[in-house]
Each structure stands twice: as C-alpha cells, then as structure tokens.
Amino acid sequence: VTRQHPDQMVLVDAADERAAIVGILEAAGANSREAEAQAHVLLEADLRGRPSHGLQRLITIRQRIENGVMIPGAALQVDRRADCYFSIDAQGGFGPYAAFQAVTLALDAAAKCGVAAAGLRNASHIGMLAPYLEFIVARRAIGIAFATSEALVHPAGGISAQVGTNPIGVGIPTDADAPFVVDMATGATTAGEIIARRHRGEQLLPGQAVDAEGYPTTEPEEALRGAISPFGGAKGYGLAVAVELLVALLTETALGRAVHGTLDVDRPVTKGDVFLVIDPTRLGLPNVAAYVSDYLRELVATPAAPGTDGVRMPGERARLERQRRLVEGIPHPRHLWQAIQQLSLTSSGPRAS
Amino acid sequence: VTRQHPDQMVLVDAADERAAIVGILEAAGANSREAEAQAHVLLEADLRGRPSHGLQRLITIRQRIENGVMIPGAALQVDRRADCYFSIDAQGGFGPYAAFQAVTLALDAAAKCGVAAAGLRNASHIGMLAPYLEFIVARRAIGIAFATSEALVHPAGGISAQVGTNPIGVGIPTDADAPFVVDMATGATTAGEIIARRHRGEQLLPGQAVDAEGYPTTEPEEALRGAISPFGGAKGYGLAVAVELLVALLTETALGRAVHGTLDVDRPVTKGDVFLVIDPTRLGLPNVAAYVSDYLRELVATPAAPGTDGVRMPGERARLERQRRLVEGIPHPRHLWQAIQQLSLTSSGPRAS
C-alpha cells in the first residue's frame, strides 16, 4: 500500500484546475458547453472538500471518451411523457451538460404545473447533486434529486455489493447567504471517497465498509475488494433500495449489479438520475425563504452537545471549505496533478499541430 | 421506574382491538368512516410490532376529542392549487380519514399528470405511513410520503430537540406477495417507541437518545426529558431537516418547536403530511412490478454477512410479525388493555343512556 505524506500534496488554484479540465475535454472532442459544465461540477466538488467527485474523475472521463463509451456532442432526446414529466435520453453524452438541461426543462414546467420532474438516462456521471440543486434554488424553486450508481453497497445482513451508493439531494431557497442544500450518499461512503483516501494514504472510518468476506475494514484496498456499508444500518439500506427502485423505474435504467459506466472505462452508462422541481410561487406558497431561514437560525443556535463543537447548517462545512480553497488553493495529491498536467500537454499537442 | 414483566402482557385478538377502537371513537362522536380509518392504522401498527403507532395512541386521541382540539366530522377543505397539486385543510379532523382522501385525490390526478401531490394540514396524527403507501401501491402507482412531528430530535452536535422524527415513506408495486414499502423515521427512534418501551419496562438501544444534558442514555424516562438522536448521525440530521422544511413549506404548517398536537391533548395540531404519487402507466413505464421483483429476489439471495441471519426485504420483519399476530393475537401491556376496556365501558354507557 502506497502512503502519501502531506508534502506529497500540491495546492492548485481553482482557475488553473478549471482551465486544465476544459482544455483536456475540448481536446478530447467536447464542445465548450459540455466542457464548462463538466469542469464546474468537478471543480465545485474539489472546492468543497469532496475529491471523490472532483478532478480524479477526469482521467476516467477522458478514457471513456477515447474508448467510445462517452460521446461528446451527443444530442439530448427529450420525450415529454406528460405536461410536466420529461423522459430524457442523453445518448451517451456528458452527464453535467445533460443534467443542467433536464433541470431547466423541469423548472420551466414547474412554473406551469407546480410540480415537475425529469428522468435522465444514458448520461455520464453527473457528479455531486448539489450544483443542480443550487441551480434550481437560484430560480427560487425547491429541488429533490435522486441517482443510482454502480452496486457498491451491501444490503444490511449481506456480504456483497448489490445496491448503489444512490445519493439523495434536497435544495430549498433561504434568505441567508447560502441556500439549504442536502446532498448525501445513502452508502456510508462513496467509491470516489475510498479512491480519494487511497490516493492520500488515509484509512476509512469504522463502519464505512466491509472486506470481501464481509468483515468490517478501514483499509481502502480491502474495501474496494469488498463493499461499502449502508449509512445508518437497516434504515439506510431501506432508503438506498428505495432510491435504486425509484430511479431505475423512472429513468428505465438498470438495477443493482447491472449498473455500469461511471467508474469503469469501457462500458456504456446504465445508471439514472431523477430531478423533481416544485415551484412554490405557482402553488401559492409565499415567503418560503424567510420562513425557512428563521428556523435554520434557531437550529444553529441550539446549545452544543457535550464533546462537540456545536450545530452546523447541513452543508456548512463544505461552504466554509469552499471559501478557504478559493483563496488558498485546492490540495491535490502531487501524482494526480502531474497526471492532469501530462494530459494537458498531450491534449494541447495535437490541437496545436 | 415501573418495570413490567412479560406476564403483565395480554394477548388481544385483532378483531377485538378493532371493535374496541371503533366503539370508543364512535361514542366520542366519530362517524363510521373516521373510526374505521383510525382503527385500521392503529391496528396495522400493532400487528406489525410497532406499538409506538398503535393502540396506546387511542387514549390521547380520545382526550383530544374531549378537549375540542380534534373534531369528529370536520369537513375537508380541498384547494386545487394546480391541476395535480392539492392543498388540503382537514380543519382539525381525523388524520387517517383525511390522509386516505388526500391520497385518493393524488392518485386520480396522477392518472392524468403522471406525477401528482397533496399536502395535508390540520389533520390529527396519521400514524404509520405504510398504510397509505400500500393503498397507493394497490392502485399500481408509486408513492412517496413525508411528514413532520413534534420537535423530538436534537440536531447533530446539539443538546436539545429542534427537529421532528419526520418519517420518509416509499411504496413501489411488485409482483411478489407483498409490495416494496419503506416507512422510516429519520430519528433513531420515535416518541411512541420510547413510550412503548417505558410501558414494557424495556431499555432503549444505544445511540437512540440523549438525556436533558445531551449525554447518551438508554433509559426511556431520561430520553423523554432529553431528545431522540438523528439516525445515521449528520446524514440523518440533514435528511430530517430536509423533510421538516419540505413538509412545512408544502403544507403551510409549523417548523421545529412550533409543531404541536400529536402527543399532547390540548393543542391544535400544527404538523403536516405530504403525499407524492407517480403513475407509471401514465408515464409509459410498463412492467414495473416484474422488474422490481427480480431485483428484490437477488437482494434477498445475497450471501449472509458474518454474525447476521442474512438479508431481508425492507419491511419483511413487520410482515412476518403481522402474519403471526393475526393468528396468535397482539401482545399489549395489561394496564393498557385494561384502560381501553374501561374506556369501552364508559363509552358505551352514555351512548346507551
């Protein structure tokens, strides 16, 4: 097991990371919208201290494009199954670009129906859910999002991975500096997080994963050969399966071990993403933001429990980290940033020639 | 602290429990539909081994009616805010009766829009979410439900209760004997469960609650003076707050400590309930049940993890318990069943006079 020391990390400026991602993707055939949307979601993950959904994914993305299982410039096929329900086929294209379009369709429809939804299939990994929820909230709407992933989570009582890490996201407008956004995997961790910890030479937290025989482990290598545990035991397992079924049904995508194409580099993507948008103005629900914000302030004012540093807004830690990293730079393992720079060189080479 | 011994339990026949509930409620002024719906949800909870949402609530319900904060015969005010969104005011009436009507409206609307929703306010405690999800699933639709409750859960890092136990429910049709139904509180336990354990003289599980100073406790009495912990730590806390906000906004009801009226006997109810119905046929999503069932069978076939008795379908334990209790009867603390019988006597007295 290779262990990284802190001095093997480098600090990367956000603008440099964005430029590198856009450059590499455009050289690989992406148009500027696809590249910008992808760069936005990767960079936002790194800024928030979630490297699992950040730059480390770019190498996989580029390889998938090269292997023809991810298709720059793919046209979005939109099937309006009902006034306010869209079934969208991204035809192998960029997930973030497709997802922002899906959310825009749902937002416009919600202004008419009050509640609207979009199901997205054949789109590459869309990354964190938070950027899409923030996009919805910026239009003063309420967003709920679900997604499936490769089967990485063992059922409660089971030894092997059969369920995705299946995130749930909720975004609600506030009148504070930041919206209320929850974006959480229903697994106790994510594949990307395990890989990120291996990159950094860190252990997992107890309870996050089991090894190939089903015994708890904190070793990233063993966890990658085993399975992620559901968060919160049997309840988290039930929730993960509920998301698995909801997403697969609404997007007509795969279930369990038949989900591929976000971690591998050679198979078409078979996961799905669902966005639900509620327009409070259309439903005659005024003053949503102020009402929410008063309550959130009360929450944060709760006296601290013994041995803790008190109550935070969900997402607050990520927001503070983002502010810091915008100033100080984003810590990346040196070998990752070197690989990206290498890709930039080989990418810009052919383009210039 | 009073401790109950197993020999202080009595076994009650399901038909007897139902008759007792209906009789007591009709004597208190409920019409037969209100009484039957209420009896159904209380009895189903007891049959499934969830006494927290069962017969023990009847004493509170009856007292609330007597105190004028729960109103038999209240008319449902339905405000159709959009084609497929209903804002419903139960005007203090029976929760289960109102909720089944809300779900019926959403089901009928979903047949047109694909996705429909109903928000319910001023309805008394609706009990478990599962019966409503089962009602939706019986019509071959997909159901999602959220509800708020009194502030009983402390925020992660906080000492005092500020968030409801806020359940999440998901129901999906299958072609197996039973539908897929998840119905879970986002608190690590519920107020009703703590009260039920106190009734039985049982301890709580570690991690379920803290005392008034914020220290973990397994004593029901101390937990009732303290707070319930969120399930799954910070993630469960985020989810609980998301449900709190979603429900309060959509139903125009209270947040946090301003939620009353399901555990007390003297205040109007200020929690809310939200139902979302998706009609797969309307959205051109055929064969939902078969697809789901194949996957669920795979899940249950996962090899058992060391030290466990293997994988169950979410809800399976409750289903098996229900079958057993339908035959063997429902165990109730003797003093609870005696109190119910006493109520039956005093209830039938005035009616006969």
The arrangement of helices and strands of chain A along the chain is: EHHHEEHEHEEEHEHEHEHHEH
Shape label of chain A: globular
What's the rounded overall pLDDT mean of chain A?
A: 94
Radius of gyration of chain A, Cα only, in angstroms? 20 Å
Structural class category of chain A = alpha+beta
- Quaternary class: homodimer
Approximate helicity band of chain A: 40-55%
What fraction strand of chain A? 15-25%
Number of continuous helical runs of chain A: 11
Most extensive chain interface and residues per partner: A-B, 80 and 80 residues
Q: How are the strands ordered across the major sheet of chain A?
A: 2-3-4-10-5-6-7
Query: How far is the N terminus from the C terminus of chain A?
Result: 40 Å
- DSSP, total strands of chain A: 11
- Main beta sheet strand tally, sense and closure of chain A: 7 strands, mixed
Residue runs with pLDDT of under 50 for 5 or more positions of chain A: none
Task: Provide a descriptive summary of the structure in words.
- The structure is a homodimer of 353-residue chains.
- Chain A has helices spanning 14-27, 32-47, 56-66, 95-113, 130-138, 191-200, 220-225, 233-251, 288-300, 316-328, 334-352, and strands at residues 9-12, 77-82, 85-93, 115-123, 142-147, 168-172, 180-184, 209-210, 227-228, 272-278, 330-333.
- With 353 residues, the first copy, chain A, is an alpha+beta fold.
- The radius of gyration of chain A is 20 Å and the shape is globular.
- The mean pLDDT of chain A is 94.
- Chains A and B meet through strand 4, strand 6, strand 7, helix 8 and helix 9 of A and strand 4, strand 6, strand 7, helix 8 and helix 9 of B.
